[in-house]
TrEMBL record:
GO MF annotation list: nucleic acid binding
PANTHER family: INTEGRASE PROTEIN, TRANSPOSASE INSF FOR INSERTION SEQUENCE IS3B-RELATED
GO annotation, biological process: DNA integration
Protein name (record): IS3 family transposase ISDsp4
Lineage summary: unclassified sequences, metagenomes, ecological metagenomes
Length: 286
């Protein structure tokens, strides 16, 4: 009976009710509130202290120099006094989801086994809510380890329609967040992503096609193609993540919940005529 009553409460409100220091275990609280325990991922992934230092430096550097390739990064970290080889650097780049941008589109042949689609937003008049959603994953440095943050932003209104945290970048995780956003906000016409493995998978493509959503993908190495969500990452990191240095998944979830509530409801944007994303989004969908 308790579980049935709990399921009536929206999932985000139920997640906010979880308390780390409660007499009940996290697992028991999740059971009573009908929440999937795995959706919290309380344990950040860990690396050596030096690797975490390098990864945090890369994360901060990416907002200023996303055009740095492996060779430049190797020189940089060598000059900073780290004894690092190219194999280790490439592994850490992958962990922080570093995607080097290029001045022009790369002309390498795509893997025919992957599902890749053209970029559809060039010249498109994006003039209404739920016309285009942009999605992406970013690395989150923490006090003792790291996690990942996935977000969905409505491009026209800058409203964050969905977000989630995890300690691994899986297609299932991204799809679950997209499904939740669709249930709460309706189906967008287009979803734009990069060409990460999560978004070139058969499962992701199937989810979007089943919902009648047109698929758009950034050009390989084209940072500017998904500029709106890149700006979101810069905001959330410099206004929250770098300031608070969260210790675990629960504190990170609560911090992100507070931040995105602020971002959507209180943080006005010059590009929106000094209105908040919430005001513009719900004015459009009303």
């Amino acid at each position: 009976m308790v579980k049935k009553k709990a399921s009536i409460i929206p999932i985000e409100k139920r997640k906010a009710m979880i308390e780390k220091n409660d007499q009940l275990s996290i697992n028991k609280q999740c059971t009573l509130l009908s929440i999937n325990r795995s959706s919290f991922y309380y344990s950040p992934k860990t690396e050596s202290k030096e690797n975490l230092e390098i990864m945090e430096t890369m994360d901060r550097l990416y907002t200023r120099a996303p055009f740095f390739g492996t060779k430049k990064l190797l020189v940089l970290f060598t000059l900073l006094g780290y004894n690092i080889n190219i194999k280790r650097l490439r592994r850490l780049k992958k962990l922080v989801n570093w995607k080097t941008i290029y001045p022009t589109r790369k002309t390498s042949i795509s893997n025919p086994k992957e599902y890749k689609y053209p970029y559809l937003l060039n010249g498109l008049d994006i003039c209404r809510a739920n016309q285009v959603w942009a999605i992406d994953i970013t690395y989150v440095p923490m006090k003792k380890g790291f996690m990942y943050l996935f977000a969905i932003i409505d491009i026209h209104t800058r409203y964050v329609v969905g977000w989630s945290i995890s300690n691994s970048m899986t297609t299932e995780w991204c799809n679950a967040c997209i499904k939740d956003a669709i249930e709460r906000h309706g189906i967008p016409e287009i979803i734009n992503s990069d060409q990460g493995s999560q978004f070139t998978s058969a499962e992701y493509v199937k989810l979007l096609k089943e919902n009648g959503i047109t698929i758009s993908m950034d050009g390989k190495g084209r940072y500017c193609d998904n500029i709106f969500i890149e700006r979101l990452w810069r905001s959330v990191k410099y206004e929250n993540i770098y300031i608070y240095a969260y210790e675990d998944g629960l504190s990170l979830w609560k911090g992100m919940n507070e931040y995105f509530d602020f971002y959507n409801n209180d943080r006005f944007h010059e590009s929106l005529d000094y209105q908040t994303p919430h005001q513009v989004y719900y004015k459009n969908v009303a």
